[in-house]
Amino acid sequence: MAGGWSRDGAVQDQIDDSIKDELARIQASRPVGESLTHCAECGEPIPEKRRELVAGVRHCVECQRELDAEAASRGGINRRGSKDSQLK
What's the farthest any 2 CA atoms get from each other in the chain? Predict the structure, then answer.
């Protein structure tokens, strides 16, 4: 790797690895088993239709929205780092 250049396909390998990691994280966080009748966060009843449609549901719609928003705000992994770190 003369001149600090990466081998051909290295960027695509990083993208592929990031996608695989994210898919594994999503699959691991999917609920499994029997749905709860009441939300694990607030204790409110979970509607029967939601329990039927979402296998293993643990939260009411409002609490799930909040949990999803928190997870989205944390973001993912940036394997490439910032441009500044690459230019040094």
Answer: 62
Q: Does pLDDT of 41 surpass 60?
A: yes
Question: Considering Cα of 45, then 46, then 52, then 58, what sign does the dihedral take?
Answer: negative
Find the length of the chain. 88
79 pLDDT band (50/70/90 cuts)?
low
**What pLDDT score does 11 carry?**
87
The rounded distance, in Å, linking the Cα atoms of 45 and 23 is 30
The pair phi, psi for residue 45, each rounded to 5°, is -60, 140
Assigned token pair, 25 = 């994280």
